[in-house]
Design brief:
The protein is an alpha+beta fold. The protein has two domains: 3-114, Up-down Bundle (Methane Monooxygenase Hydroxylase, Chain G, domain 1), CATH 1.20.58.410; 126-364, Alpha-Beta Plaits, CATH 3.30.70. The chain is 49% helix and 20% strand. The chain is built from nine helices and eleven strands. Strands 2-3-1-5-4-9-10-11 form an eight-stranded mixed sheet. The chain is globular, with a radius of gyration of 24 Å. The relative contact order is 0.10.
Length: 367
Amino acid sequence: MATDAAGEISELVSKLASVAAVLNPDAMRKEADSLRERSADPELWSDQEQAQAVTRRLSYLDGELSRLDGMKRRLEDVGVMFELAESEQDEPTRDEATRDLAAIRTEIDQLEIRTLLSGEYDAREALIAINAGAGGADAADWAEGLRRIYLRWAERHGYPTEVYDTSFAEEAGIKSTTFAVKAPYAYGTLRGEHGTHRMVRISKYDNQGRRQTSFAGVDVLPVVQQADHIEIPEDEMRIDVFRSSGPGGQGVNTTDSAVRITHLPTGIVVSCQNERSQIQNRASALAVLQAKLLERKREEQAAKLNELRGDGGRSWGTQIRNYVLHPYQNIKDLRTGFETGNTAAVMDGEIDGFIEAEIRWLRQQGQ
């Protein structure tokens, strides 16, 4: 085997061992065995939401364990391939081994990113809320484009999503939307996406075809769990029911099943029109409200700590990324400096490079 390939394989074996030490596969196997026992209990399935949470967590653990075992085997196999190529002077095999080694390095780097997710809520599933900002119809169209980016990103990774609410704009696009990414560590992975996203492109809604700048805001919240104790007294909420509607006022159903909850002390308003049942929509809307109140509480605590440190707060929570499609093609994160000219791929959900750079940047900031 060539010295440089042997050295890289040795480096990756060591790196994988370090990653495994943090991820703790023994503890993961123990948790997976416990969850398997729970999933075999017929009583669990009387609570469908809890049962789905158990099966999602079990699927995640099994997948991560399989991934770690697979990496070890692939590193052994690629070493054998290099030795075979060397002894037989086989260039096609050497080329294949080189490609495999590069792919393995990328996957181990991605696994290493997971070890950086150690925040209080990082292991949670995520709620994403997108709101159109300044820019009229272009901003509403851009908000819809951002929703597609995150849903395509989740689809690429095999993460289930559930759209709770969408408010459609009159001309095109959406005013706002809220959806969940139902995968472990979704919050820790996506929380760096929180902030204002700026789009520059030729407007589809300007009959003179001029360049337009538009904005959309992204909020990323951790899904509330039973241990969070976010209790909301009934007299602090106003609950309204209304008929669900689709684009252009098209009726989704003929019953008043959509639910809007206003939290009177803070003025926070959430709504859900995803389910046919008013009871289901109310439960989903309440879960979103609890997540927003939990995040508000966390931000207040962080602000107090920042005040003690003499830190003005999370300046990164404002404009975070520029998407320029005209007069040139470039998407750049203003905090990390990560950028790409492959704008079509980003618009189709390929944002892992941005996300990984964010995770490393947030860790460096102590956030």
